[in-house]
Design a protein that fits this description.
alpha+beta; about 5% strand; elongated; 16 helices; five-stranded mixed beta sheet
Length: about 475
């Protein structure tokens, strides 16, 4: 027996046993464990504060992006408001249209306010900034205002009772040239109407819209970049938090093992050895290390298995995109006002499988999936919902961005139709529905209708669903 063998050993062996039984100081080890655990917990709390702040910053950037886009919409609405007021005054001659026009120009100043707010949100520096494009649109609108002033003057001068109008000085001070002075009242009114519909006027309106659209695209680009950077920061913080959580967990496990190995087991063996009048043998340090290693291996394997099962349950095995189950879960929780659903099919995909084989078909699916992910923002959700069917849930958008989404699909088709990787040329058809036009439970149906219309029209394109088509 081990106890008897210990009794028969020499003094040197007794000293060796004694040295092996010298463990770490319990009080010092407790202090070390407490200090390390406290530091890890404090670091975890600090990281949590940073995560919260980064999340709030992302939310603020999303809000500012939406507000900046609203500035563009408000600017265009103000321009259209002035045009409509001037045209209505020409047609009816009613004084309240003149008053509404001048109130917008001199008091409400919606264009100027939208421009100022955009400068606050995005800054006004850089030749290619969003502000500069909207400012260019504003300068063009001022040029149009000069023509609209002339139109208002002509209408006032053609009236039989001009004194009934509250004519502002800006209009009153306009001097008509001899060409207009020699006209009759009816001719002046007719000329005023033509000035608001001729090629010069419409060309300026078109330039204003183009500059505003470019401004909107620059807003999306700049804010998307900032949001992506903050998302990366938050992911790094969350990964660090996860590491700290594991550190705290492992520290507590090690502390329990430490107490068990250095206090409970040695104490039990001491009592047993004393009762049998035997030498006290060293605690099984190697066994404890073995048990710790086995436990840690099992824990790590369980975590890895859970992560793999969770990922596989939510993702498509071929493309790595979210699968149909994830799509159903996301589509049920979308925001009613700021979401679009795009349904996408690869055109004539069955022919690819039949001609080139299923292996090539799988490569085409993976390529299309990768290009869809690159074409949309990180906040958008790209899913594979069938064989060659994809869906994209696009967040923080409105129907004013229809052109942008159509351009994305057109650009995607250009790349798919000109492959440089040895795969056959393909194209996609897409239908998109916006939640500001349809109820959210109607988005799949109307996106599918738009997709059907694209296929019916010859495929290879994108169509936006309209309520009239529903």
């Amino acid at each position: 027996m081990a106890g008897k063998e210990a009794l028969n050993t020499g003094d040197g062996d007794k000293k060796s046993v004694s040295r092996k039984n010298k463990g770490l100081s319990l009080s010092r080890s407790s202090i070390v464990f407490a200090v390390i655990t406290t530091a890890a917990v404090i670091a975890f709390i600090v990281l949590s504060l940073f995560v919260s702040e980064t999340y709030r910053k992302i939310e603020r950037l999303n809000d500012e992006s939406f507000e900046a886009q609203n500035c563009v919409i408000e600017f265009l609405n103000a321009c259209d408001y002035l045009t409509n007021a001037a045209r209505s005054f020409v047609i009816t001659g009613e004084s309240h249209f003149l008053d509404e026009y001048m109130t917008e120009v001199k008091e409400t100043k919606s264009r100027e306010k939208a421009l100022e707010r955009l400068a606050e949100l995005t800054g006004s520096t850089g030749n290619g900034s969003a502000y500069n494009f909207l400012n260019s649109a504003y300068m063009l609108s001022l040029t149009l205002a000069e023509r609209e002033y002339l139109v208002l003057k002509l209408v006032v001068e053609s009236s039989d009772t001009p004194l009934l109008y509250n004519v502002p000085s800006e209009i009153e001070n306009i001097q008509l040239n001899e060409y207009y002075r020699n006209m009759s009242a009816e001719e002046r009114r007719e000329s005023a109407g033509k000035l608001l519909y001729d090629a010069y006027y419409l060309d300026y309106k078109d330039q204003i819209n183009k500059n505003a659209n470019i401004c909107d695209e620059r807003i999306l680009e700049s804010f998307s970049k900032l949001i992506d950077e903050n998302n990366s920061t938050m992911h790094l913080l969350l990964r660090t938090q996860l590491i700290l959580a594991f550190i705290v967990l492992i520290l507590n496990i090690l502390y329990v093992i430490f107490i068990r190995s250095q206090v409970r087991r040695p104490l039990s063996r001491i009592v047993s050895s004393i009762k049998r009048n035997e030498y006290i043998t060293a605690a099984g340090a190697s066994e404890m290390r073995f048990l710790s290693d086995v436990y840690n291996d099992i824990l790590k394997e369980n975590i890895r298995s859970r992560e793999e099962l969770s990922y596989e349950a939510a993702h498509d095995g071929l493309t790595g995109l979210f699968n149909r189950a994830s799509y159903d879960a996301y589509i049920s929780r979308i925001d009613q006002d700021t979401t679009a659903l795009m349904l996408i099919d690869i055109d004539k995909f069955k022919d690819i499988n039949d001609v080139y084989g299923h292996q090539t078909g799988d490569r085409v699916l993976r390529k299309t999936a990768d290009m869809l992910v690159k074409s949309f923002r990180p906040i958008d959700i790209v899913c594979r919902i069938g064989g060659d069917e994809f869906a994209v849930i696009i967040r923080n958008v409105s129907s004013s961005m229809s052109r942008t989404l159509v351009d994305k699909i057109d650009h995607l088709n250009q790349m798919l139709l000109s492959p440089d990787d040895g795969l056959p040329a393909v194209s996609v058809s897409a239908g998109v529905a916006f939640s500001d036009k349809f109820e959210k439970n109607e988005l799949p149906k109307n996106a599918d209708i738009a997709l059907y219309n694209v296929k019916k029209a010859g495929r290879c394109g994108c169509r936006v669903a309209e309520p009239a088509e529903a």
